[in-house]
Amino acid sequence: MVITFLTSMILVISVLLVLSNLGTVVDDTAKAVRGAMQRLRVHGGLASFVAFGVLWITIFGLGFV
Question: Taking the mean position of all CA atoms in its chain, how far away is CA 28?
Fold first, then answer.
């Protein structure tokens, strides 16, 4: 019973910590995605990146059919 209580408290505290920093996480993720897209556009790798992504989506999609 004590172990269940402790693990539940750790879970609640972890969730609260994540939720309190959610804005920072979203902001950092958005900056990283924007930076990656800008680098892809500047270096001309956007078409190959999109083609690679479509290839993997097609492979996984056909795998579920």
Answer: 11
Is-contact 46 40, C-beta < 8 A? yes
Whether the model pTM is above 0.70:
no
- Distances in whole angstroms, Cα of residue 6 to Cα of each of 11, 17, 18, 19: 9, 16, 18, 20
Q: Residues 49, 40: contact at Cβ < 8 Å?
A: yes
Exposed/middle/buried for residue 40 (C-beta within 10 Å: 0-12, 13-18, 19+):
middle
Whether 60 and 52 have beta carbons less than 8 Å apart is answered as no
Model pLDDT for residues 27-51, shown as the tens digit of each residue = 988 999 898 888 878 887 777 878 8
Q: What are the tokens at 44?
A: 């001309």
| Residue among 48, 51, 47 nearest 59 (CA) | 51
